[in-house]
């Protein structure tokens, strides 16, 4: 009998079915357009792209263009790659365009699917990013799919680590850009540390298609990208705090050894506050709970942990005046490893060692927050349904399961569970042997390099020839993968054989052709191709007869998705195949997460040596264990994200400000407003509202005006005048400051003054923001620690982070005002001295360069002194072949790229 749910599904279809059904008419439209686009010339496809762009400019929507654009893209791909996209691939593309996650089974051709929405959306001219998990895939996919975009008249770029700046900028300037999540995130951070728009490499964040979206937006989402920079020396602070730790007694705090945390008691807090005051570490009137005290509280916390929770010669040793950590599992020293957040420095202070400066975070962003910058986000995966809830909640992304092109023919066997690792491996070798004898190609998945090598030994002992694919062998990756589907091949792999590993039954025909051509360079390539293709068809058939690729996994991963990815190397595009997981009760997952119930059932079933238990119930039970782990990880991520959101909001404000500042030509109004607020603050401080003149601190105001505005004004006398109130004094200060700045502007010239204002603003924002980041990091570690009253740490954090942000803005205004008040043009002598210094430096550099290049001056290269012989401005063939960063051959002394290189 069918359950009610099943009956309902039969009648109404699942929500997923309805989404699939809803796109059918669109797919039909694209199919109907096929003959029309097939009839176009190669030029005609490119002209279509031009036409579409124009129509968008004229206001046509992407949705209405979709059928034609997809039809054009399908035709382009057919001509460029020889692949005609299946209907289900078009569907996957439509869902991506609509901002969903398209879940398409492994091997269904997602790389091609992405070209459709990428092409359509790039028609706006805004640039589409396709995100991959590693550089190898970024390059491979860009190279492979650039043929499609090229056929349509669109440009493709690929971004990679350590790429020269101009190349990177060009890559981001392309219609479609392939990049890893890491590079994208880092480029974003680097861009926001630059000081002019021209230096920024990324354009806007318009549309991203994230391949293997679960791995990027879920597994790696928590890891923040961090750019850290010049160290800060705060030895005095550490030493100062270290000295007060011995004065704290047991009543002042409690220790939690398991989590290695300390919490102060109410008494402790009070005592500490007094102590910090008496040592001058807290200012008069400043409380421990003020946001400004965050950093100091954090360091006291670290100092206490250093003293009470870290033991010399157990947790660390002191060697040659350095604190070296000891690994708690292996008992070995870990030279070079340092505890973070000032804890290592606190231990150094405790041991009287030299205190090494800490690295400071200059910028950071999590992937979650980076990807939320995009106007539209979408993703692809083989296996998203397990995380649908998280995608919806965090990114607002829906998951649509796209049906496969052909039914899946792979046989997925139930897990086989053995008692011990040894029994398991014995059984694995035996199973490999059996399948191998039939000639069935086998891919064996292992979880680590060690295990892959152990298994390799066992197979060698058993006389089974095989290849090993792990990080040590990654050079031969392409070759090993190309061979892995051949008759009789046995390949042991770590999780490197996951997404993107495309194992072809019978071997990779392109590789075979290349090999044949290498062996016989004389032969006619076309003949060779024909011959090899015919042979390959027979090879492929033989492998299919042997059952296709057999994926044998030697363990289950914590996450079901990783298991499914491995499985998915087999049974691609409807091919036959087989997958099986071999487990033992000694596996990590079973030991840590296997339920007691599972163990009980297994023992009552009575396992004999060498025998496995194979039962669907075991699979279910294991999946439940995996689901539990996944659920717990999800909760941790959600919590972290909430904390990170706070910083993210602030980051957005700051980065937006920076961008506005960089774009603006004239910031004098902004700077003037800042100055006005500084003056208002001064008045509020020294002549507080609702006070009488005799309560004013006009001498204090006088001194502050000198310090912050660089103005020596008779404020005391002003205050004595009849009828002069705080407003009047503020007005006079405003006026005097404006006059001074006008004089400065005249002296520098308005254009220079505007440039100076811009630089000072940017530099000060950057410096303040960095400081603020560090404070926020500290705040995060102390909110839990301030659990004196049952307050919610997240709320505490939010409130304090907000106050800190305001404080930062105040001090930003002050700094900018103060710096601008102090600038002045150089005197003639100073200018001369500076010019001389620059000239000296230059000639020293030139001498050094000459010495280096002596005798090696390449013909045609320009020297700083003059133009290249025969240089003709209008004839580039007379320019030699200068590099972009070399001196221009015209002799201007500028770099080529800034001079004639611009015309070339
Ligand atoms: N329309 C098509 N017709 C024939 N073959 C295709 C088509 N689309 C893709 N393929 C082939 O399918 C194979 C798998 O493609 P691809 O690597 O993009 O799959 P995938 O979905 O990304 O798989 P995985 O999830 O394992 O990475 C490739 O060999 C590709 O050439």
Secondary structure layout plus pairing:
Blueprint: H1 4-12, H2 15-38, H3 42-57, H4 62-81, H5 87-97, E1 101-103, H6 110-122, E2 128-132, H7 135-151, E3 156-158, H8 165-173, E4 176-180, H9 181-191, E5 207-210, H10 213-219, E6 224-232, H11 235-244, E7 253-256, E8 261-264, H12 266-278, H13 294-308, E9 316-319, E10 322-326, E11 333-334, H14 343-350, E12 358-366, H15 367-371, E13 376-381, H16 388-395, E14 399-401, E15 409-412, E16 416-418, H17 421-437, E17 442-445, H18 449-461, E18 467-469, H19 477-483, E19 490-493, H20 509-519, H21 525-545, E20 549-553, H22 560-567, E21 576-584, H23 588-593, H24 596-605, E22 613-614, H25 616-663, H26 668-686, H27 698-709, H28 715-720, H29 726-748, H30 750-783, H31 793-822, H32 828-853
Helix pairs in contact: 2-4, 2-5, 3-4, 4-6, 4-7, 5-6, 6-7, 11-13, 11-14, 13-14, 13-30, 20-21, 25-30, 25-31, 26-27, 26-29, 26-31, 29-30, 30-31
The site of adenosine-5'-triphosphate has 20 residues, from helix 6.
